[in-house]
Design brief:
five-stranded mixed beta sheet, single chain, alpha+beta, elongated, Glutaredoxin, 383 residues, Immunoglobulin-like, 3 domains
Length: 383
């Protein structure tokens, strides 16, 4: 009798578990016979495996999972090809995709947010492709560094403006708006929540909406914390304005800079007298940083033997990120802890980053970025 009681109790518990509301994702992957299809959660802490199936001839699949308490993100994966989608409640998401172009040629139904996520994914892929093509054109010396930088800036601005208007501010309470915030270019966030006041506004809009609808959700809390940190990093510090003696300027020919490198050593700009110097203000944790550094590396490799040096100042809020990135660069890398409110950047009237200045071998300011029509030609003229 006791045994029957415990079996019945276990059956009741199992029934209660199975009765939890669930969402379903189903569909077909054509041409994938014998391949494994994985369902994974894109959680805050990383990718979490949920289920898998070995696809047969018709490629059909069906997964069920307990619905999330608030909008969450999931993905289907075949080999290293991924389809991202979101789930709000107990909907059924239908996905049909070919194995070959799994990540781009799929069709999704039953989830308007997932349709928007597909649109964003394809736009980001196109942006990355355009940037890669621009880099190749620059490396083949078909365009100058100035044209490269201007073109890169236009590509990024146009992309961000479109996404802001049509995906973030148009519906900040949606999973698609949240997804848009964390898209990447060159493995860096396109929208920078730590260093850009304009981008922080995008994060704040989504954070406010999420907090209104899902105040207890982990994603809401995490996004709110990101916004607070970004606002703190970009708040104008109460600090003494940098005062530079006139004799120091006339003696060196430039406004001298003394900041510490990764090893803690003070590196002075004026110590580079005798070399032609590219003075560069940048933020490594930005979408344009990698492409900008490709351009600088190309110039550096060509002319370092002729007396070129680069003095690069990071305005990154994240010191660890700066150290990790700058560790692989061959030129002088320093960081200003005041970030976007760097007194040195202010002294050089830096309006946006990256910002490039040229200094001749006599330690005299020769040109600033917006006046340089051909950076490589200008560098060669100083050597």
């Amino acid at each position: 009798m006791k045994k029957i009681f415990f079996v019945a109790l276990a059956a009741v518990a199992l029934s209660a578990c199975n009765s939890e509301p669930k969402f379903k994702v189903e569909g077909e992957v054509s041409g994938a016979d014998g391949n494994m299809l994985y369902l994974e959660a894109s959680a805050l802490e990383g990718i979490v495996p949920l289920d898998s199936v070995k696809l047969k001839g018709d490629g059909s699949f069906s997964f069920k999972q307990v619905r999330p308490a608030s909008p969450e993100f999931y993905r289907l994966r075949v080999e290293d090809k991924v389809i991202n989608f979101s789930v709000d409640s107990t909907e059924t998401v239908q996905v049909k995709a070919p194995f070959t172009d799994f990540s781009t040629a799929y069709a999704v139904e039953g989830s308007p947010n997932s349709t928007k996520i597909k649109e964003l994914t394809l736009k980001q892929i196109q942006l990355q492709s355009s940037v890669n093509a621009l880099i190749q054109t620059m490396q083949a010396h078909k365009i100058g560094a100035d044209v490269f930088e201007d073109s890169l800036a236009v590509l990024l601005k146009n992309y961000k403006d479109e996404v802001k208007i049509n995906y973030i501010f148009a519906a900040p309470n949606t999973a698609a708006a949240y997804f848009a915030l964390f898209q990447k270019l060159n493995n860096y966030l396109i929208f920078d929540p730590l260093n850009s006041k304009d981008d922080i506004k995008c994060f704040a809009a989504v954070a406010t909406s999420l907090n209104n609808y899902y105040p207890h959700a982990d994603r809401s809390k995490n996004l709110y914390n990101i916004v607070i940190k970004g606002m703190k990093n970009t708040r104008t510090p109460q600090q003494k304005v940098l005062e530079i003696p006139e004799d120091a300027i006339s003696e060196t020919g430039v406004i001298d800079i003394n900041l510490r490198d990764m090893k803690g050593n003070v590196r002075k700009l004026s110590d580079l007298k005798g070399k032609a110097v590219i003075l560069d203000f940048t933020i490594y944790q930005s979408a344009t940083s990698a492409s900008h550094n490709y351009m600088l590396r190309d110039l550096y490799d060509k002319y370092v033997g002729q007396g070129l040096e680069i003095y690069q100042i990071s305005l990154d809020a994240d010191e660890h990120f700066w150290k990790t990135t700058a560790d692989n660069l061959p030129w002088v890398c320093v960081r200003d802890a005041n970030g976007v409110y760097s007194t040195f950047a202010s002294a050089y009237n830096v309006q946006s980053v990256p910002a490039v200045f040229l200094i001749n071998k006599n330690n005299e300011l020769s040109a600033r970025g917006e006046t340089i029509k051909d950076l490589e030609a200008a560098v060669k003229a100083l050597l």
